[in-house]
Amino acid sequence: MVPLAAAWGARDLGPLDRIDIAIRYAMRDRSGPDSVEYVDRFADSFDTLVDGQQRRAVGLSDPRTARFADGTSGRVYRLDTPEQLTLPATLGARTVATRIGFDSATATGALVALRRAGVLRAVSHPRYARLRRALLHQPGSGDAAQVRIDLEGDGGARTVLLADPLGQSHLTAVGAAILVERVLGLDGGPPEPAGARFPEQHPDPAGATAVLRSCGVEVRT
Protein backbone atom coordinates (compact mmCIF):
# COMPACT_ATOMS: atom_id res chain seq x y z
CA MET A 1 0.00 0.00 0.00
CA VAL A 2 2.94 2.37 0.43
CA PRO A 3 3.72 2.94 -3.28
CA LEU A 4 -0.01 3.04 -4.10
CA ALA A 5 -0.53 5.74 -1.44
CA ALA A 6 2.45 7.60 -2.89
CA ALA A 7 0.79 7.58 -6.32
CA TRP A 8 -2.41 8.96 -4.77
CA GLY A 9 -0.47 11.71 -3.01
CA ALA A 10 1.44 12.63 -6.17
CA ARG A 11 -1.72 13.00 -8.28
CA ASP A 12 -1.38 16.75 -9.05
CA LEU A 13 2.19 17.60 -8.06
CA GLY A 14 3.59 17.39 -11.58
CA PRO A 15 7.15 16.10 -12.12
CA LEU A 16 8.37 14.73 -8.79
CA ASP A 17 11.66 15.81 -7.27
CA ARG A 18 11.66 13.45 -4.28
CA ILE A 19 9.66 10.95 -2.24
CA ASP A 20 10.64 10.24 1.36
CA ILE A 21 8.91 7.28 3.03
CA ALA A 22 9.06 6.64 6.79
CA ILE A 23 7.70 3.49 8.45
CA ARG A 24 7.15 3.06 12.17
CA TYR A 25 7.29 -0.61 13.12
CA ALA A 26 5.52 -1.32 16.40
CA MET A 27 7.41 -3.76 18.61
CA ARG A 28 4.13 -5.29 19.82
CA ASP A 29 2.62 -5.67 16.34
CA ARG A 30 1.48 -9.07 15.12
CA SER A 31 3.64 -10.36 12.26
CA GLY A 32 4.57 -13.48 10.32
CA PRO A 33 7.98 -14.76 9.20
CA ASP A 34 7.86 -12.80 5.92
CA SER A 35 7.71 -9.52 7.86
CA VAL A 36 11.34 -10.03 8.81
CA GLU A 37 12.63 -10.45 5.24
CA TYR A 38 13.37 -6.74 4.81
CA VAL A 39 14.68 -6.38 8.34
CA ASP A 40 16.94 -9.37 7.68
CA ARG A 41 18.80 -7.23 5.12
CA PHE A 42 19.52 -4.32 7.45
CA ALA A 43 23.29 -4.76 7.06
CA ASP A 44 23.21 -4.85 3.24
CA SER A 45 23.90 -2.07 0.78
CA PHE A 46 21.44 -1.56 -2.07
CA ASP A 47 20.70 0.47 -5.20
CA THR A 48 18.67 3.65 -4.98
CA LEU A 49 18.17 6.86 -6.96
CA VAL A 50 19.42 10.29 -5.87
CA ASP A 51 18.82 13.30 -8.13
CA GLY A 52 18.21 10.94 -11.02
CA GLN A 53 21.50 9.10 -10.53
CA GLN A 54 21.91 5.55 -9.24
CA ARG A 55 23.65 5.40 -5.87
CA ARG A 56 24.47 2.70 -3.33
CA ALA A 57 22.86 3.17 0.07
CA VAL A 58 23.65 1.37 3.32
CA GLY A 59 20.99 -0.10 5.58
CA LEU A 60 20.43 1.61 8.93
CA SER A 61 22.22 4.78 7.79
CA ASP A 62 21.23 8.35 6.85
CA PRO A 63 18.80 8.94 9.76
CA ARG A 64 15.88 11.36 9.73
CA THR A 65 13.26 12.26 12.31
CA ALA A 66 9.69 11.55 11.21
CA ARG A 67 6.39 12.58 12.80
CA PHE A 68 3.50 10.16 12.31
CA ALA A 69 -0.31 10.38 12.29
CA ASP A 70 -0.65 9.74 16.03
CA GLY A 71 1.62 12.71 16.80
CA THR A 72 4.63 10.64 17.86
CA SER A 73 8.07 11.23 16.38
CA GLY A 74 11.09 8.97 16.02
CA ARG A 75 14.32 8.37 14.18
CA VAL A 76 14.09 6.34 10.99
CA TYR A 77 16.93 4.78 8.98
CA ARG A 78 17.46 3.56 5.42
CA LEU A 79 15.97 0.22 4.40
CA ASP A 80 16.14 -1.81 1.19
CA THR A 81 12.65 -1.88 -0.37
CA PRO A 82 11.49 -2.31 -4.00
CA GLU A 83 9.65 1.02 -4.35
CA GLN A 84 12.95 2.89 -4.22
CA LEU A 85 13.52 1.64 -7.77
CA THR A 86 9.94 1.23 -9.02
CA LEU A 87 8.67 4.71 -8.05
CA PRO A 88 11.34 6.47 -10.16
CA ALA A 89 10.35 4.24 -13.08
CA THR A 90 6.59 4.66 -12.70
CA LEU A 91 6.15 8.16 -11.22
CA GLY A 92 9.37 9.72 -12.50
CA ALA A 93 10.64 10.70 -9.03
CA ARG A 94 14.29 11.75 -9.10
CA THR A 95 15.00 10.76 -5.50
CA VAL A 96 13.24 8.05 -3.47
CA ALA A 97 14.25 6.97 0.04
CA THR A 98 12.53 4.54 2.41
CA ARG A 99 13.37 4.51 6.11
CA ILE A 100 12.18 2.51 9.10
CA GLY A 101 12.29 2.84 12.85
CA PHE A 102 10.79 0.95 15.77
CA ASP A 103 8.40 2.59 18.18
CA SER A 104 11.08 1.85 20.79
CA ALA A 105 14.01 4.27 20.49
CA THR A 106 16.08 1.79 22.50
CA ALA A 107 15.45 -1.05 20.04
CA THR A 108 16.18 1.18 17.05
CA GLY A 109 19.39 2.45 18.62
CA ALA A 110 20.50 -1.08 19.50
CA LEU A 111 20.07 -2.28 15.91
CA VAL A 112 21.99 0.72 14.57
CA ALA A 113 24.80 0.00 17.06
CA LEU A 114 24.89 -3.68 16.00
CA ARG A 115 25.15 -2.66 12.35
CA ARG A 116 27.93 -0.15 13.03
CA ALA A 117 29.84 -2.71 15.09
CA GLY A 118 29.63 -5.23 12.25
CA VAL A 119 27.59 -7.72 14.26
CA LEU A 120 24.70 -7.86 11.76
CA ARG A 121 27.17 -8.47 8.95
CA ALA A 122 28.94 -11.15 10.98
CA VAL A 123 25.72 -13.13 11.48
CA SER A 124 24.47 -12.68 7.90
CA HIS A 125 25.53 -16.22 6.88
CA PRO A 126 22.61 -18.64 6.33
CA ARG A 127 23.81 -20.78 9.22
CA TYR A 128 22.87 -17.91 11.56
CA ALA A 129 19.35 -17.47 10.15
CA ARG A 130 17.71 -18.79 13.31
CA LEU A 131 19.75 -16.39 15.47
CA ARG A 132 18.88 -13.40 13.28
CA ARG A 133 15.19 -14.22 13.43
CA ALA A 134 15.37 -14.56 17.19
CA LEU A 135 16.87 -11.06 17.30
CA LEU A 136 14.58 -9.43 14.75
CA HIS A 137 11.26 -11.28 14.85
CA GLN A 138 9.44 -11.12 18.16
CA PRO A 139 5.75 -10.72 17.22
CA GLY A 140 3.26 -9.46 19.76
CA SER A 141 -0.51 -9.42 20.08
CA GLY A 142 -0.96 -6.42 17.78
CA ASP A 143 -0.40 -2.67 17.57
CA ALA A 144 -0.92 0.21 15.15
CA ALA A 145 0.99 0.52 11.89
CA GLN A 146 2.15 4.01 10.89
CA VAL A 147 3.53 5.27 7.56
CA ARG A 148 4.48 8.77 6.44
CA ILE A 149 5.10 9.69 2.79
CA ASP A 150 6.54 13.13 1.95
CA LEU A 151 6.35 14.16 -1.71
CA GLU A 152 7.85 17.18 -3.47
CA GLY A 153 7.27 18.16 -7.08
CA ASP A 154 7.03 21.13 -9.42
CA GLY A 155 3.43 21.64 -8.26
CA GLY A 156 4.23 21.80 -4.54
CA ALA A 157 4.63 19.43 -1.61
CA ARG A 158 2.31 17.03 0.20
CA THR A 159 2.49 14.58 3.10
CA VAL A 160 0.37 11.42 3.14
CA LEU A 161 -0.19 9.77 6.53
CA LEU A 162 -1.36 6.16 6.90
CA ALA A 163 -2.38 4.66 10.24
CA ASP A 164 -3.91 1.22 10.71
CA PRO A 165 -4.99 0.53 14.31
CA LEU A 166 -5.12 -3.20 13.50
CA GLY A 167 -1.45 -3.28 12.54
CA GLN A 168 0.74 -3.99 9.54
CA SER A 169 -0.69 -7.48 8.97
CA HIS A 170 -4.16 -5.98 8.45
CA LEU A 171 -2.77 -3.20 6.25
CA THR A 172 -0.97 -5.81 4.15
CA ALA A 173 -4.11 -7.96 3.85
CA VAL A 174 -6.28 -5.04 2.75
CA GLY A 175 -3.65 -4.01 0.21
CA ALA A 176 -3.45 -7.53 -1.19
CA ALA A 177 -7.25 -7.67 -1.54
CA ILE A 178 -7.36 -4.30 -3.33
CA LEU A 179 -4.72 -5.39 -5.85
CA VAL A 180 -6.20 -8.85 -6.46
CA GLU A 181 -9.64 -7.30 -7.07
CA ARG A 182 -8.03 -4.88 -9.54
CA VAL A 183 -6.21 -7.63 -11.45
CA LEU A 184 -9.39 -9.75 -11.70
CA GLY A 185 -11.68 -6.81 -12.46
CA LEU A 186 -13.75 -7.31 -9.31
CA ASP A 187 -13.67 -3.60 -8.41
CA GLY A 188 -15.92 -2.49 -11.24
CA GLY A 189 -13.24 -2.03 -13.88
CA PRO A 190 -12.12 -4.44 -16.59
CA PRO A 191 -9.55 -7.14 -15.69
CA GLU A 192 -5.94 -6.16 -16.15
CA PRO A 193 -4.25 -7.34 -19.36
CA ALA A 194 -1.41 -9.83 -19.12
CA GLY A 195 1.91 -8.44 -17.92
CA ALA A 196 3.67 -7.10 -14.86
CA ARG A 197 2.21 -4.22 -12.84
CA PHE A 198 3.46 -2.38 -9.81
CA PRO A 199 1.01 -1.30 -7.06
CA GLU A 200 1.47 2.40 -7.86
CA GLN A 201 0.19 1.74 -11.40
CA HIS A 202 -3.33 1.10 -10.07
CA PRO A 203 -5.61 3.06 -12.45
CA ASP A 204 -7.72 4.47 -9.61
CA PRO A 205 -5.56 5.34 -6.58
CA ALA A 206 -8.36 7.47 -5.13
CA GLY A 207 -10.77 4.54 -5.28
CA ALA A 208 -8.20 2.27 -3.63
CA THR A 209 -7.72 4.86 -0.91
CA ALA A 210 -11.48 4.95 -0.32
CA VAL A 211 -11.45 1.16 0.16
CA LEU A 212 -8.62 1.53 2.67
CA ARG A 213 -10.68 4.02 4.66
CA SER A 214 -13.73 1.77 4.54
CA CYS A 215 -11.61 -0.95 6.16
CA GLY A 216 -10.69 1.29 9.07
CA VAL A 217 -7.34 2.61 7.85
CA GLU A 218 -6.73 6.32 8.43
CA VAL A 219 -5.50 8.05 5.28
CA ARG A 220 -5.01 11.81 5.27
CA THR A 221 -2.83 14.52 3.84
Q: Portion of residues in helices?
A: 25-40%
Order of helices and strands: HEHEEEEHEHHHEEHHE
Overall body shape: globular
| Major sheet: arrangement of strands | 4-5-6-1-7-8-9
Using only CA atoms, what is the Rg? 17 Å
Give your account of this protein's structure.
33% of the residues lie in helices and 28% in strands. It has 221 residues and is of the alpha+beta class. It has a single domain, classed as 2-Layer Sandwich (Dihydrodipicolinate Reductase, domain 2), CATH 3.30.360. The mean pLDDT is 91.
Main attributes of the structure:
221 residues; Dihydrodipicolinate Reductase, domain 2; 33% helix
In short:
This protein is an alpha+beta fold and 221 residues long. It has one domain: Dihydrodipicolinate Reductase, domain 2 (2-Layer Sandwich). It has 8 helices and 9 strands.
Write the layout of secondary structure elements.
Layout: H1 2-9, E1 16-25, H2 36-39, E2 45-50, E3 53-58, E4 64-67, E5 73-78, H3 83-91, E6 95-102, H4 105-116, H5 119-122, H6 129-136, E7 145-153, E8 156-164, H7 168-184, H8 205-214, E9 218-220
Parallel strand pairs: 1-6
Antiparallel strand pairs: 1-7, 2-3, 4-5, 5-6, 7-8, 8-9
Helix pairs in contact: 1-8
